[in-house]
Automatic annotation (TrEMBL):
Residues 176-313, 434-542 form the Fibronectin type-III domain. One of its GO terms (biological process) is nervous system development. It comes from Nesospiza acunhae. GO terms for molecular function: heparin binding. Pfam families: NDNF, NDNF_C, NDNF_N. InterPro entries: FN3_dom, FN3_sf, Ig-like_fold, NDNF, NDNF_C, NDNF_Fn(III)_1, NDNF_N. Its main location: secreted. This is Protein NDNF. Keywords: Glycoprotein, Neurogenesis, Repeat, Secreted, Signal. Secretory protein that plays a role in various cellular processes. Acts as a chemorepellent acting on gonadotropin-releasing hormone (GnRH) expressing neurons regulating their migration to the hypothalamus. Also promotes neuron migration, growth and survival as well as neurite outgrowth and is involved in the development of the olfactory system. May also act through the regulation of growth factors activity and downstream signaling. Also regulates extracellular matrix assembly and cell adhesiveness. It comes from the Eukaryota. The gene is Ndnf_0. Residues 1-21 form the signal peptide. It is found in: Secreted. One of its GO terms (cellular component) is extracellular region.
Length: 556
């Protein structure tokens, strides 16, 4: 048999070895060196599976090669290759090995070797090459059996990609289909919401089961593939459930993630250094209103059509939108030495503004957090001087000029109601709030519990103050509600007289000894009690310690 026919019958590894031998024998001219390099690439390649998505890990500046052989005995052999970069841009190309070196024409040995080298150099040709981070698909057709080589290279850093090869183009697609117009339309923008719409995927219309849309929302940029988004989130220090938690398994969540399931929609919020990354899977609905966004913030939106059976996905063309600015809240004037009690509805009114004009150079702001979570932002003549989340009792001592204008903006950071007391006064003004101990916790002593009594203790201060103890009998199912609804600014004036246990004064100049204990008697066995301690300062404004639940012993 002639060499031009023999290669069709040789096993693949023998063919590669034969090609390699021809390349080694050729003289080392520049064209022959190129021929040897191409043949060497074939010899050191891995086979690429047909009909299966393959994940390939690339090391920086080190090329990786895969090959495949088209099936023999077919008049036309169609095939397609889809490459999905999962991080940085990569370079990839497809080379085809069309024909092996034929039998040399008669003549001297040098002529034969030159002829072999010339034919070897014509074996390999590049039919496609690409550089970038977009998902790219090459579709080809071959009229004869051929050997193909795929070469991948990352020049920026280590990364990974997915590659899908198929020679069966008639039995459907691994990846869901995108519509002719894959853009996402922004059809509504609010202060905290953005409404999106997109055209249906043909895959949803044909196979609604196992196909659904998933939305990714972030404040950084759009992503061209689902694996690119997952890689970016992981690089921020976040572990992500595979394929946007499409398995809908709550146990896959990490501590930094919050899962919300409502109205058949799964939402996962990831807390990362660059802000929140939200993932929502909404079935086959092609419109969605993204809630709970921040005002005056730019967000990027990506929609993926996902096959839940194969975890394969296709990305719509991402879009972005900026939420509207929050309308200016009404401003309340602060007066010297007057306490203002601000209540914020987390769902309706998240912001509240106060204004104060200084009549002294030194100003003292006091904030007593009563309930919920609140962030305070203070500016002087438009420039920020303080900004932080409030906790307990917080003082800010600021120095400026006469008639400086201070603006205090309070913002609720949760959806439940929040409240805070605010006081502005000259720095030398006698404080209205009592001096607080290091901790507002109430401690109970388990060993001192009996069927009829409980012993509790709390810290005091170096300033003589009044402390009042209250008790309340509760049931097991009331514990959470009582603790969550407690207003740390409220006094005992609305409590029933029967709940009052005692009031006492005490202090100690040595803070190490500024602690007091009380044994509350006359209790019932095996019963839950809620204990509260109220601290009253010179002005009579109360501060409530953290409530303590204690159960008396059943048997003694």
């Amino acid at each position: 048999l002639k060499m031009s026919w023999l290669w069709l019958y040789l096993p693949l590894h023998l063919l590669l070895a034969t090609c390699l031998c021809h390349s080694i024998k050729a003289p080392t001219t520049s064209s022959q060196q190129s021929s040897k390099s191409n043949l060497f690439n074939f010899y050191h390649s891995l086979i690429l599976a047909d009909g299966k998505e393959t994940t390939i890990h690339l090391l920086k500046d080190i090329p990786k090669r895969y090959y495949f052989v088209l099936e023999e005995g077919r008049a036309l052999a169609p095939f397609s290759i889809t490459v999905t970069p999962c991080d940085v841009p990569i370079e990839w190309s497809i080379l085809v090995y069309k024909s092996p070196p034929g039998k040399a024409a008669p003549g001297d040995r040098d002529t034969q070797e030159v002829s072999k080298s010339h034919k070897a150099s014509s074996m390999v040709s590049t039919i496609f090459s690409y550089k970038g981070n977009s998902v790219e698909t090459y579709m080809g057709m071959s009229s004869h059996s051929a050997l193909y080589l795929l070469e991948f290279l990352s020049t920026e850093r280590d990364t990974h990609i997915t590659v899908y090869l198929t020679t069966d183009t008639t039995s459907g697609h691994l990846y869901p289909e995108l519509p002719g117009d894959p853009r996402i339309d922004v059809i509504g923008i609010g202060h905290t919401t953005v409404t999106l719409a997109w055209k249906h995927s043909p895959s949803v219309l044909q196979h609604s089961e196992g196909i659904q849309y998933c939305l990714l929302v972030n404040e950084k940029h759009n992503y061209k593939s689902l694996c690119a988004a997952e890689t970016a989130i992981r690089s921020s220090g976040m572990k992500l459930p595979p394929t946007v938690a499409l398995s809908l398994s709550p146990y896959l969540l990490e501590p930094q993630q919050v899962m919300i399931l409502s109205n058949s929609e799964l939402s996962i919020i990831n807390k990362v250094s660059s802000g929140e990354v939200r993932q929502v899977c909404m079935g086959t609905k092609n419109t969605y209103t993204v809630p709970n966004l921040s005002p005056s913030t730019q967000y990027y939106f990506d929609v993926f059509i996902v096959n839940l059976l194969t975890n394969a996905s296709a990305a719509y063309t991402g879009t972005f939108a900026r939420t509207l600015e929050e309308p200016e809240p009404e401003v309340t004037e602060l007066e010297d030495g007057k306490v203002v009690h601000v209540v914020l509805d987390g769902k309706k009114q998240k912001f509240y503004s106060l204004q104060y004009q200084a009549r002294h150079k030194k100003i003292h702001f006091t904030f007593q957090l009563c309930r919920g979570q609140i962030r305070v932002h203070i500016t002087r003549n438009g420039k920020t001087v303080a900004s932080e989340n409030l906790s307990g009792l917080r003082y800010f001592s600021l120095k400026g000029k006469l008639l400086d204008t201070y603006s205090v903006q309070l913002r609720s950071t949760e959806e439940s109601n929040s409240s805070v007391k605010v006081l502005a006064s000259p720095h030398f003004h006698k404080p209205l709030f009592p001096l607080l101990p290091e901790s507002l916790k109430i401690k109970s002593f388990s060993k001192l519990r009996t069927c009829r009594s409980v012993t509790i203790a709390w810290l005091g201060t170096q300033e003589e103050s009044k402390y009042c103890v209250y008790r309340k009998r509760i049931e097991e199912d009331q514990i959470w509600r009582e603790l969550q609804s407690a207003d740390r600014c409220s006094g005992p004036e609305f409590r029933h007289k029967s709940e009052k246990v005692l009031c006492k004064y005490f202090y100690d100049l040595n803070l190490q000894r500024a602690v007091t204990t009380e044994t509350i008697k006359g209790l019932e066995a095996g019963t839950l009690y809620l204990f509260d301690v109220y601290l009253f300062g010179p002005s009579g404004i109360p501060v409530r310690y953290h409530s303590k639940v204690v159960k008396t012993r059943k048997k003694c």
